[in-house]
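We read letters as residues; the fold follows as tokens. Both lines appear below.
***
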Amino acid sequence: MTTPSAPWTYPPVEVGLVGAGPWARAMHGRMLAAGPETALSAVWARRPEAAQETAAPYGARVAASFDELLDHCEAVAFAVPPAVQAELAPRAARAGKALLLEKPLGPDLAAARRVADAVQDAGVVSQLVLTKRYHPATDAFLEAARAAEITGARSCYLHGAFLGGEFATGWRLEHGALLDLGPHLLDLLDTAVGPITAVRSTGDSRRWIELSCEHENGAVSQASLSGAVAVPHTLTRIDLFGPEQPLSYDTAGIDHEECWPILRRAFATAVRTGRPTALDATRGLYLQRLIEQAVRSNADGSAG
């Protein structure tokens, strides 16, 4: 992904937003309304008053139903819990709408497969909101990693949002960091180190969980995940080791505001050209398979 530079010459993509929670207000609505590549055409949420609050600053329509939202957009962005996304995204795909999807695709592998299958069957464009993949610093790290010989890697994604506040929501508290933070870190490790062939986990996803990953090239990586630890700021770090000096990636110094124009341009370009990026629903299903491996290995270990 690269920072947009050339003028946008296509008509803006009319995007309907599903969801009106904190993330929808803080990111999706604001990003989609900013243009010029997209326009926020409508908002639908199960709480009409929340939808009104999200839509009002941008003059977007408040849809009375999901079907009404589909009538007033050419693409749909989801900012809802995984189970809700897995229920509604296939309907949007069957209606011919491009999809901007949150991670994970669904609450489990079967639900994620239904989303990915619907996208493939309908032939619509899809894209995942893997936030950090849309930052120039991430591009630079991954480019450097491609040129490095990597023997092993250590990584972490840690924060305290599950301890309280607006992001301590039901599905996050139920499933924990593996389902919420795992897709980010697994995607980065898989891309930086090499395709992951096996994942094992230990610990409690609602408190602290450790992942051990085996990669196709023989490298081994480890990942620590928690959303329930008191840290001064979110810690997202990857260190790659090999015969040369370590290569490190740390998000502490990056400005996430730089991600949104890149994400928006990538999605709109994919919609207008019909060519999705590599971060599509197929990628989301791949990441969900890795998460399922981790879940099963932990359950098998506990049973033993």
About this structure: The mean pLDDT is 95. Residues 281-303 form the longest helix (23 residues).
